[in-house]
Amino acid sequence: MKTKQKYFFIIAFLLTSFLSNSQALKIQHDLVVAKDGSGDFRYIQDAIDAVRVYLPNQITIRIKKGIYKEKVTIPSTLSNIAIIGEDSTVISYDDYSGKGKMETFDSYTLRVLGNDITLENLIIENTAGRVGQAVALHIEGDRCVIRKCRFLGNQDTIFAAGDNARQHFVDCYIEGTVDFIFGPATMLFENCIIHSKANGYVTAASTPKWVNHGYVFKNCKLTASADVNKVYLGRPWRSYAKTVFINCELGKHILPEGWDTWGKAENEKTTFYAEYKNTGDGARTSSRVKWSHQLSESEVNEYTLENVFSGKPNSAFNAFWNQVSHLGITGKVDTSYNNYTAYLNSKKSHPVTTIVPEKTLATVSEKYAITYGKIGNRALLLDVFSPTKTSQKPLPAVMIIHGGGWRTGNRTQHYQLARRMAELGFVCFTPEYSLSTEALYPAAVYDLKSALRWMRANAKTYNIDPDKIATLGFSAGGELSAFMGVTAENPSFEGSNGNLKYSSKVQAVVDIDGTLSFVHPESGEGNDSKGTSAATYWFGIPKKDNPQLWDEASPLYHVGAKTPPILFLNSSVDRMHAGRDDFRKILDQHNIYSEVHTFADAPHSFCLFNPWFEPTVKYVSEFLKKTLVVK
């Protein structure tokens, strides 16, 4: 008997020890979920359940393409997790209020209770249909970032829970019928499409009285199904609801009065519903309810990222509000980097540097300040340089992308290069794009792909061959040029603005001292201890906090069989070549043509100045004649 008791206590001790230390056995590294068994788990919830609570560092759960019919919860004890899908990763369920004893708040497909959660490239849907309240996303975690996701449902698609929760939606698509964005959280929506599937209400905020900002929509587009014509911007679920639309495009389905009181006249005194410089048929303010507001220039300045998300966040989200003033998202265009400042800097280390004279050419026609798109109400402009000699056949085209660390610079940077290339028979376009003072990655990519599609849409006007288009860029523009080449027609990087029926594919790429990898050992980006590198400003988050994002933004991450021929022109600054040799090895594997020309003892900005300018023109024109002009 004593022996049995002895074994019993030993087993009990071991079991207790195991249970008390079981959290130490939990996973704290990146995971892959795949329905076909090729990952670490087949089910999303299994992967989440396996993760260690209160993670010290962010991990990523990558979900491979497929439809995952699961009801998923990220508990409040989990934080610092990025859940990233592929192009067609769907999380789907069909619960709804009234199904058994279920209520609205139980009907979710995905419920996020943890803080510092990132969702990216996911489709989250509730397929219950028009049966009443049926939530796709229930999110009450604080400091959550949602990028490039689609939320599909009907009534109550997104429940923004948590009185003190703050959530940032970027480049998302959200659809529904009635009150399809509702709840008490503070939410900032940027560059999102908000689609009404039936007459009803877009928002139903229940902002607590003590909260300064409720829902803020900036640069969003409100669309509707063809038969929808009576939609309100919002109605107050609770008395102190706050909702603001800034620089948004409002479709004709938005009613002239704009806002509703939910049948309670006293809500006119407590709610705050406001707009600022919206556009579209639904943006006319003459018939708006008198108790709504039109923001002044000074008032709209209150709605910065920093102010909306003021607080003390954890490091995983510091890019969005704790460091936002440090990152300098001012909403203003920074043109402090220009050819003259670059000349002064280059002259210090390379006394032979001289300025290339700016002069027009009789053989080149120039057209300036043509609008190809918009950022809110700001027009995005480009200039066109083309041969004056008429051609019976369409000419090859070149998009020339300026540098400046994704943060500064100006489309005028390469005017002289555009003139020389036009003189040689190419039609050149010099577009501007969103700098990191205006919007974070990948907004610049969206803009430039929109410009490229615009070029194809206007091919006849400018006599260009839509099947012979190249991108050329210097420094940050070189990285963007290469990135456009390797991500052509990838829906994750197309954006939603302008001429979407046209292709973003290019037939050749010129990369002048533009990095190919932000995470390569040779790259200097993001290795500074203070987190003030140009790329950190652009991504809005230090490399150590989200290395996956830095990798995704690298052209080297995407190079493959569909990459076009590419020319590399490099200075003697080694870190600007990061990833180039690895990139070329992949090109060689697919028999894709590439060239490299390195200018010995040349500064980073060599292509802007003599004695390197004319050799640059020579290398570029010869490469493009090989790859564009000759089939």
TrEMBL record:
Which top-rank group of organisms is this from? Bacteria
What pathway annotation does it carry?
Glycan metabolism; pectin degradation; 2-dehydro-3-deoxy-D-gluconate from pectin: step 1/5
Task: List the active-site residues.
Answer: D179
Which keywords are on file for this protein? Aspartyl esterase, Hydrolase, Signal
**PROSITE patterns annotated for this entry?**
PECTINESTERASE_2 (PS00503)
Give the GO biological process terms.
Answer: cell wall modification; pectin catabolic process
The cross-references to Gene3D superfamilies, in alphabetical order and at most eight, read:
alpha/beta hydrolase, Single-stranded right-handed beta-helix, Pectin lyase-like
- From the UniProt record, which GO molecular function terms apply? pectinesterase activity
Q: Which Pfam families match?
A: BD-FAE, Pectinesterase
Name under which the protein is recorded: Pectinesterase
Tell me which species this is from.
Arcicella rosea
